[in-house]
């Protein structure tokens, strides 16, 4: 299914057989690719890093997409030599449609 957000983003995702007007997008943070890894994904967007946190074994980013009030949380493995993106940095994020599910909002 293709979902258009109030801010104008077009997102491809899986949906149940019954589709309603208002949908919420559910996507696990570890299923979102960051930077060059976002290339070739069904959904790709350029955003701005609002927060970057080094946690045990992962880096957690909160990314603002254009036209969006909310933030997208992205988790990537903390590998040796990985460079932490600073808040304010532009970054491309992406995910495959099969990784996102829409559910009805009540």
Q: What does the secondary structure layout of this molecule look like, with pairings?
A:
Elements lengths: L1 E3 L5 E3 L10 E5 L5 E2 L8 E13 L2 E7 L6 E7 L12 E6 L4 E5 L2
Antiparallel strand pairs: 1-2, 3-9, 4-8, 5-6, 5-8, 6-7
Helix/strand/pairing category: mainly beta
Number of strands: 9
Compute the number of helices.
Answer: 0
Range of strand content: over 45%
Q: Largest sheet, order of strands side by side?
A: 4-8-5-6-7
SSE pattern: EEEEEEEEE
Helical residue percent band: under 10%
Low-confidence stretches: none
Shape descriptor: globular
Mean pLDDT: 87
Main beta sheet: 5 strands, antiparallel
* Gyration radius from CA atoms, angstroms: 14 Å
What would you note in describing this structure?
The model has no long low-confidence stretch (mean pLDDT 87). With 106 residues, this protein is mainly β. The chain has a five-stranded antiparallel sheet, with no helix packed on it. The chain has a two-stranded antiparallel sheet with strand order 1-2. A two-stranded antiparallel ribbon has the order 3-9. The radius of gyration is 14 Å and the shape is globular. The chain starts with a strand and ends with a strand.
Give a short synopsis of this structure.
The chain is mainly β and 106 residues long. It is 0% helix and 48% strand. The chain contains no helices and nine strands.
